[in-house]
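Forwarding these from the shared drive since the link keeps breaking.
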Amino acid sequence: MSEPSESGVHRLKVDEVVEETPDAISLVFAVPDGGEFAYRPGQFLTLRVPGEHGGSVARCYSLSSSPHTDSAPRVTVKRVPGGHGSNWLCDNATAGSIVDVLAPDGGFTPKSLDGNFLMLAGGSGITPIMSIVRSVLAGGDGRIVLLYANRDEQSVIFAAALRELAARHPGRLTVVHWLETVQGLPDESSLRALAEPFADHEAFVCGPGAFMDVACGALEPLGFARDRLHVERFLSLAENPFERGGEPEPAEPAQPDATVEVDIDGARHRFDWPRRQRLLDLLLERGIDAPYSCRQGACSACACRISGGEVSMVRNDILEQEDLDDGIVLACQSLPVTDEVHVSYE
């Protein structure tokens, strides 16, 4: 991967555009000779797309390639009715196009490729799951059961690739297709019946909001612990991380700075924390290599744990109440409430 600019933006060349279905494409990026593109299965890229009225917009698309099997990274984009980013890319991206991207990020990724996995995907939700499937089959030793819901046969992204993988790994990969035109919309009881024999697997769920609600409702009674159930939601960014500007939020002179202790990468750091400065901005300003991606509270890349004190979040579109109860917050949205705060990335 090319070296990022000072702003953390990489410029990548599109090597190939692959038509996956009539309304979905994959962009295969060229990696310069001697370059490196490090990512984990299930992560995403944030792309800069020209805006409708000048400037640009930022859109996040999951990597469908595997770092264990593919020499070049690729993201898969499905047209969304009225979606500017997806339609612009499907209509305009060609081999040779140059695209600005942020570094790969996201937490929808297995800690280990070993073990057994239950995957539930709806529509374009197959994209990060495909990356995980390819990686587990190449680098792991367990079994994968994939339940994949689509409108009809023509809308099944990666249909041929899934057939090939299942044929190559008959004892390890089972793919169950659910077609709305044949079976109607998936419901909780039907998905639960399909998933129940695999309730001891690690589960990954991704797709449109309605599908996610049904899939999570189907799995909840089966006793999946939080560390075995991973959910990825596609959300729009409220701001453009490629065009961050304006004046920093002013400090409130009536309130003295808080103090934060941060455990990260085996080291502990202690800083004064201005009341109106978000935690991620403070850490980056102090030279701490804290993880992040969208900086808008729409992904979980910057998630950390509050082990002491209290913070408030300006925005949260991704964390569930269980996460909040466990002390998990988004660093990019966190402001101090108490005078002392302890944060852990360990």
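-- next protein --
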Amino acid sequence: MSDTFDVIVIGAGPGGYVAAIRAAQLGFKVACIDDWKNEKGDPAPGGTCTNAGCIPSKALLQSSEYYAQAAHHFGEHGISLKDLKMDVAKMLARKDGVVKQNNEGILYLFKKNKVTFFHGRGSFLKTVDGGYEIAVTGDKPAIVTGRQIIVATGSRPRQLPDMPFDEATVLSNEGALRMTAVPKKLGIIGAGVIGLEMGSVWRRLGAEVTLLEALPTFLGMADEQVSKEARKAFDKQGLKIELGVKVGEIKRGKKGVTVHYANAQGEAQTLAVDKLIVSIGRTPSTEGLNAEAVGLQLGERGDIIVDEHCRTNLPGVWAVGDVVRGPMLAHKAEEEGVAVAERIAGQHGHVDFGLIPYVIYTNPEIAWAGRTEQQLKAQGVAYKAGTFPFLANGRARALGDTTGFVKFLADAATDEILGVHIVGPYASELIAEACVAMAFRASSEDIARICHAHPSLSESTKEAALAVDKRTLNF
């Protein structure tokens, strides 16, 4: 006889584990099923974000940034170093330790909130009276019944058609995080978030990095002014970025990988590298879910079809995160997970897709929320713009990091903030103020009138808001 739960969550990534915790907080009997394991075979909840994405990549970015600062900028502070070395094995060990802390933190939260955790793969068995039977396959197989099911199975990296990942020379994001030595030459297909972040890590440590991007524009999803500023910084750092390329034959050999491609002018080119990272997007992960057993509707991409409330075509079955429509972002998944748990409880869970922040953790960092200037132009929206450079910010000067600016876009008639775009130091943290302001439909004048600490990077946000009315005080 199977255990019965009010809510069963399949997947313990950001959307899944947060949904399980919130449902438990609301008084439901909850189970969460996840099959991710670490190298020792122990449970490793947290999904791609914790194990092979957000968390480990930020750990490596931080380590490589420290190394770059020591190698190139400590002298400006009067700090002298001799025989600077990078111990890659120790860097990876630290990264693994950070990941483990997060894994253990999630398991602790499950215990604290009385969420029953099953380590294994969850899949639909059949519809039963009042719910669904879910099979758990793994070291301890089980069959459980749930009245409400939340699918949060995430996504997996997309492979090139004729070149599967071997994680030795042709790498996904997982392999890119596990390289045990700095490659002399590193190739990356895709100049999006993953490509830029991984390229930055290994470039700082000495690799010659070339990124091949099929699109003709760099970071076309970001504000064009921000993209141009970021591109200048990356060029200065030595990241070689080629746009508008058409990748052809890829050959894997004993000494590395050779990529044949046509550049933007249609000229045949060859790139020989020691390692090749492929970051051409991700696909929803629904394999093994056995959706057909209960008639769960899937889309052409393998995604689960949901409405604006994350409801599937089946009563009592919901889906959140990368496995459904919308941006594949951990914080988007978390918001959907909370919203679904609250909807199950009869509350009015809410996610504003227009206020989801986007962040790229390179140096400079890039972050934005709301609409870009090119979007406003295309939509025919009358707007005002204001920018303020970090070069004129006292805290940025003290940090020795004055690249970039803050940009505000506001409605020309009402002054309501329509978008905020940042390229520069700690953009990932500064963007939160913009999200709060836009959530309350604040005007640029509201931000301009709020006292910001001095000296602080956030003063650049205030100054950019002042710039909308052409009255900056420090530039």
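The CA atoms of residues 200 and 362 lie 7 Å apart. The mean pLDDT is 97.

- D.
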